[in-house]
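note to self: dont lose this again. the chain is below, predicted strucutre after it. 259 aa total, dont forget to put it in the shared folder this time
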Amino acid sequence: MTSVRTGPAAAPAASAAPAPTGRVRGPVPRRVRPPRWLDLRLVLGVLLVLVSVLLGARVVAAADTTVPVWSASGDLAAGTVLSADDLVAVDVRLDDAADRYLATSTRPEGRTLARAVRDGELLPRSVLEDVPDLVQLALPVQAGFVPPGLTRGQVVDVYAVADPAAGATGTADGQVTLVVGTAPVQAVSGRTDGVLSASATTVQVVVSVAADSADDVLAAIAGRPLVVVVRGSVDGAAPSAATVPSTGPTSSAPAGPTG
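---
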């Protein structure tokens, strides 16, 4: 009988490898793409901002309907020749009336006012129309016979008085003559202020008179001392002629101040 040798028993199957310890790694996500400048949402956002800014600018521009025009920097009498110092640019809302006033695009310097204007008043175009033919006359006046606050644009009367030096010869008659009436002052120069100013200082007062009466004014003055009297208001029409009364009878105007 044949014996059968059996080999060693087969080794048991290797046990399954132990599961790795720790967290199990999931699937790797796709790489997130960086934002692009041409992203549609970014472009739409920029467009919305630009449209909002443009609409806001148009609304503000439509609400601001002011226009720059000239106004007077002080009270100016009729007949005053405008200078740059007499004008102030202001922005005002005039709507349909804007064409009636002098815009800052115009240069009215050197033009003569046909009527008086007040401080801060807008200058209408009509204020430069129908101005009479005027000339500027420089009058030498002693400082003591000129009001301290006399400035350009005011309205004055000018009187000629008897020469004080003629009193020694006995020929002075005390006559006071109105030689220029309702004249606008164009300039005042030569005035000396202060306690040390001399009473004999001569002040030059430039006034406007009608061109056809300048000779009569000079003849009425005839070298006599002059007294300047300021009127209380600049209102009134431009002077059409200088007032030159006859030098015969004595004027009823009060005598001027004495030196």
